[in-house]
Amino acid sequence: MSKPPLPLTGSCRCGATVIEASAAPVLTAACHCRGCQKMTASAFSLTAMFPSAAFRVVQGDPVPGGAKGEELTHFCCPECLSWMFTRITGFDDFVNVRPVMFEDNSWFTPFIETWTATRLPSVSVAVEHSYDAFPPMEEFGALLEAYAAQG
User: 18, 48, 50, 121: which could join 59 in a potential S-S bond, CB 3.0 to 4.6 Å?
Assistant: First the structure.
């Protein structure tokens, strides 16, 4: 795992919404759930989980798009509708950001993969930990520690 150059800056596809992360992510992942497959029109989505205090929108006003509700809210650029980040209810200390939004994403490697029960048969992702669904909450602390130990 390589350390990202901080601060990380990036934007949506059209450049109207600009984001910044001032700290390294605490966990990275590939998600194979059907929702992520449909949101990305691809086999999976990539996520870098940042502390909320280290993430900010520098320019623009992202709007809820895709999934929005009691469990989570996806935020998109209002102009090009690029899916940029997700806030998960109950994980208010963290923001899940699509790492491809950052100008430099060469540091990104997924540490875990989730929802492998719905992974497309032809897809293989090199990760340290795989889960059929979301990792059990009792394992989450250990995952954060293991990810931090790598860096």
Answer: 18
